[in-house]
Amino acid sequence: MDRATDLLTQFANLVADQVLARLPQQASDNDDQVSDLSTDQVANRLGVCTLTVRNWAKAGCPHFTIGKGRKRFDLTAVKAWLAARDGGVR
């Protein structure tokens, strides 16, 4: 089980690194509305699938829950969390 967890963590870190590498090139449309985004909206803005965002939330990415388990995210906090993972970007 530890080996599987290690592999999953390595994969999640690889995906996070790739997302961070693309962030400066992404258009920042509607940057004034980035503090209450759904899982789908975060996934679209960062170019990843929604499962990745849900896995990030399970791994500690800042979010809050509304209603019956619907997660909401602050894009600035997500980007900061990705940058800070494992001591920063490799």
How much strand? 5-15%
CATH topology descriptor: Arc Repressor Mutant, subunit A
Terminal CA distance: 26 Å
Q: How is the largest sheet built, in terms of strand order?
A: 1-3-2
CATH superfamily: Winged helix-like DNA-binding domain superfamily/Winged helix DNA-binding domain
Low-confidence stretches: none
Compute the number of helices.
4
Strand count: 3
Structural class by helix and strand composition: mainly alpha
Overview of the structural elements:
By secondary structure, the protein is mainly alpha-helical. It has one domain (2-24, 33-87): Winged helix-like DNA-binding domain superfamily/Winged helix DNA-binding domain (Arc Repressor Mutant, subunit A). Helix content is 53%, strand content 10%. The chain has 4 helices and 3 strands. It has helices at 2-22, 39-46, 50-58, 75-84, and strands at 37-38, 64-66, 70-73. The protein has a 3-stranded antiparallel sheet with strand order 1-3-2. Helix 2 (39-46) packs across helix 3. The longest helix is centred in the N-terminal third of the chain and has 21 residues, at 2-22. The model has no long low-confidence stretch (mean pLDDT 81).
